[in-house]
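look at this stuff:

>
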Amino acid sequence: MTALRVPHEFEPQRAIHTLWPAAEDLWEEDLDPARAEFAAFLGLAAAPGADGRAPDIIIYAATPGAAADARQRVPGARVIEAAYGDVWARDTGPVFVASPGGLQAVRMVFNGWGGKYDLPGDSTIGADIARQAGAEVLASALVCEGGALEFDGAGSVITTRQCVLNANRNPGWSEGQVEAELARLFGVTNVIWIDEGLMGDHTDGHVDNIARFLRPGVVACQSASGRDDPNAAVLDAIARQLDSARDAAGRPLQVVRIPSPGFVEHVEGGPAAASHMNWVAGPRNLVMPAYNDHARAAAKALQAACAERMVAASASNAILTGGGSFHCVTCNEPLEG
C-alpha cells in the first residue's frame, strides 16, 4: 500500500464503534425501544462471515446505567464508559483511513450539523474512539461529518453541495478547495457531487441517506414509493446526477435503484428522513433499516444487487425519532491500516 485510502465498508472491518442511547431527556419514551433496535441491528452486523471472522462491537456508554443496559442486551460487546452528547458516532467520531504508516483517524470540525445542536461530549468522543483504535489523529479545518462522505475504496467519494458547501459549515469554501482537502485527508482523486438530500434531514443532506456504493463502480440510490413520497423529485434528480457521473477510473457508474420507505411522518409532523440507504455492513449481513411495508421490496431489490451478503431488514422507527439510523450511529474501523 502506497497511498491513503478509505476502504469500502464491505471490506473486512476490525471493529464497529457505536454510542448507546443514554439521554432520557432526548429520547423520552423512545429510549427503551431505541435500545432494543440497537441490540437487534448490532447482533446482525456482528454475525461472522464465511471465514468465521467477525468485527468487534465496541459500545460507548455515557452513564453507568447505560453501560449496564448495553452489556445485558449485547453480551458479546466491549462496553466503555465515555462522555458524548448523543448517539451519532458517524458524525462525531473520526473517519478511519488506511495509510502507509498505519491507521489514521481523520477528525474534521464538528459544529452540531451547522449549529443546530450543541451537546457536551460531542467534541471529545471522536478522540476517545481514535484512542481505542490506536490510530494517529489527523485534524482538518473542514467542517464536515462522516455521514456526508461515501467512499468506494478505489479513489471516489460522493458528497452533497447542500451539506459540505453550506454557509452554516464552510462559508467561503469553493468546490475546488473542498476537493483538495478531501484529497489530502483521504487520498481520493474523484469527488462526485450531488446537489441535495432528503426533506426533513437536519443534517442538510447527508449522502448516507441517499447514495451508497455497493462496490467500486456500482452505486445504490432510491426510487419513490407511492404518490405521497415527499422525495420523489429529489430521488429522481439524485439518480440522474449519478447516471452522469464517472468513477476514479473514468467509467460510468452503474446505478441501482431501491424503493424508498415513502412518506414516514416525523414525530413533530412533516416527513422524517427515513431511508433504506442508511444500512450498515457486517461480514455476513447487510443490515438495512426498516420502517414500514416498503422494506420488503427494498430488501429484495438490494439483495438482487448484493449477492455477497444477506440483506437483513431490521426495525429502526425508534432510532429514527432521533434523526438517523444504523449508519448514522456507527463508526467502522477497517481491518486494513
Notes: The two ends are 10 Å apart (CA to CA).
